[in-house]
Amino acid sequence: MTEPERTPDGRFIVVNGRRWRATDPEIPEEAAARLRSHLMRARRDVGAARRDQDTDAEREARARVHTAKVALGERGTPWWDQDSAERRERWQHGLDALS
């Protein structure tokens, strides 16, 4: 899989002309891989809940998607506005919450 285009400052990726916040590059690869795994599982669970018309399960799965996205630095306070300690706390908290 090829890497998506990035803005010159590295803060965003560009997909089909649209900018999306990039994952925090300070997250160790093993932790980032675990967070992406949680994110993908939660997204699959959103789809399953929607097919089953289970609003409670969908709400719970969407909350896990949000937790993973925040932990990856793709939502919430921009990672470039946080110091290293805050960034580590953010992704570690997400791993703890999702595990």
UniProtKB/TrEMBL annotation:
Protein name (database record): Biopolymer transporter Tol
Stretch list, region Disordered: 44-63, 76-99
Taxonomic lineage from the root: Bacteria, Bacillati, Actinomycetota, Actinomycetes, Pseudonocardiales
Composition skew (Basic and acidic residues), residue ranges: 84-93
Highest taxon listed in the record's lineage: Bacteria
